[in-house]
Design a protein that fits this description.
By secondary structure, this protein is an alpha+beta fold. The protein is built from eight helices and five strands, in the order ααααββαβββααα. It has a five-stranded mixed β-sheet with strand order 1-2-3-4-5, sandwiched between helices. The radius of gyration is 20 Å and the shape is globular.
Length: 204
């Protein structure tokens, strides 16, 4: 499979996760166009359907990228567990992402929207009822104290902040407030992500 085929299949798979009810018909039309006119035609978005498919794919892809950044995992021995309210059905994708990052860990991602939990078991990801893991998640203490967190944040801030490039509007657009609840650096610390401030306390 060449790079164009990989990109096309990726767009199709991401578009399938979009909530728009028209996605099925649009995907079918794009698949027919690919068969009749070739990959370059649909990848270049030369038809209305191909443009719509690309839009669906981009929206879902961007959401996955944000979700991977927003969600915070708690650790208990060899288990990493996190939870979030996902607007799109991407919890499995998020689980796969962390399985790739931490191949030696057992990953559990709870989707509060669907009420499902996605659990890595060997090379497979199985789906369970979220309520099975909710108490377990709530029972795990965060791995760092507030003082340690403040120190770590200071190191991060000093290494990343570029005062001349501060852009609050862009930060809010990329990290909307409705996703802030997915952070879990203790419930008292609802971090105002992406809007540079010098101390962690200023984010609360």
């Amino acid at each position: 499979m060449n790079s164009k085929e990989i990109e096309f299949n990726k767009r199709i798979s991401l578009a399938k996760l979009h909530p728009d009810r028209r996605k099925g018909k649009i995907i079918q039309r794009v698949l027919l166009q690919e068969k009749n006119f070739g990959l370059d035609f649909v990848l270049s978005s030369l038809s209305e359907e191909a443009r719509k498919l690309n839009s669906f794919s981009s929206q879902v892809g961007m959401y996955i990228h944000k979700a991977e950044s927003f969600i915070r995992l708690k650790q208990f021995k060899e288990i990493l567990i996190g939870k979030a309210f996902f607007d799109f059905p991407v919890a499995k994708n998020i689980t796969e992402h962390f399985v790739r990052r931490f191949p030696q860990k057992k990953i559990i991602i709870i989707d509060e929207n669907s009420g499902k939990a996605f659990v890595s078991e060997g090379n497979r990801i199985k789906v369970h009822a979220a309520e099975i893991f909710s108490d377990f998640y709530n029972s795990i203490e965060n791995s760092v104290s507030d003082k340690e967190l403040e120190k770590l944040f200071g190191v991060f801030y000093d290494s990343q902040n570029i005062e001349a490039r501060r852009n609050k509007n862009y930060a809010l657009r990329m990290m909307p407030k409705k996703y802030w609840k997915n952070f879990d650096l203790k419930e008292a610390h609802k971090i105002d992500r992406g809007i540079p401030k010098q101390t962690l306390a200023e984010f609360c």
